[in-house]
Design a protein that fits this description.
Largest sheet: 6 strands, antiparallel
Radius of gyration: 36 Å
Number of strands: 13
Order of helices and strands: HHHHHEEEEEEEEEEEEE
Amino acid sequence: DAYTKADDAVRGKTDQLFANPRSENPQLSLDAYVSSQLKSNIEKGGVALEKLLVSWAADFTGISSTSDLSLATTFAKGNLDAVKVYLEDVSLAVNVLLPNSNLTQTTIDRWKTDVGTARTNVNTATANLTTAQTNVKTEEADFHAAQGDLNSATDELALKKAPARPADIALYEAQIAQAQASAENSIVQLAKKQINSPIDGVITDVPAKVGSILAANETAVSLISKDTLEIESYIPELHIPFIRVGDMATVALDAYGNETPFMAHVISIDPAETVRDGVSTYRVRMQFLAFDERGKPGMTANVRIITERKSNVLTVPQGIVIHKDGKKFLLVKEGDLFREREVETGGVSFTGQVEITSGLKDGDVVVLKQTE
């Protein structure tokens, strides 16, 4: 929440005051209205805060259940203080603006509102952070107190266990069990304030906010897995009989072109059809054989599924095969005449070439197109 409000305050609310924000040399568009010193402070502050936000975002994605939350909270409060100073300078600048031919009162009022909202949000984030820090310290203190009780009970048992009566031993053991239960309860309470990811990945979005109440199945944090990506394609029913789970495929991502192929294999074929543009298709899911950081979720690609490999076969365009009475024929030149010759066919390639398994030999001349 602290990072989100800081990011919105700097990039969402004040970038509009610059001609070229988020660069190494941002230019404040209000130089005709503010002093050179204030202008310089704001421009330098914008550069510094842009670098701060980039570093903050990188540190934020690396936070885990084993991270030092106290250190992270202190770091966040320092960042918010830097944003506050920057917003104070920006507020001084916009509050002295007067309308003219190049600047309307409506624009001035909007800028003042945006800056005021940004300052309020940052102050709220600071207060929320302070409250969270206090709660964490309280839980940690309870845990350390319980741990101290456990250590004291353990030491006392060590001193008295040898000469003690069974009843005394039972009493001390009960005290130890009670201290252990108290320590475990403190750990459970602390764990309730943390969210642990079930997979390794990268955080892409955190829609949940401090103080908000989430319904069942509502997204709190979005992650992208670091596992190998999958790709899906909708195959027309005409080609589905030739595809099997395990078939290899070559994938050409549009971002890299045909010169950079990626290998994948078919992992599932939907049993039910999906109608797309009036055509019955079946969804085929494929998985890349290896993880490659060049592949990103949402990319588009051309896929070639290899269903069978054959060499030294005779093929003709599928469209010139004549179908009669359940048989297949080709127009073949015999001397000066062209006659229909019965043939048997095999598989069909992705280019539309059909295999001729009998009835035709290498060197025969066939008619590709008949004239009317």
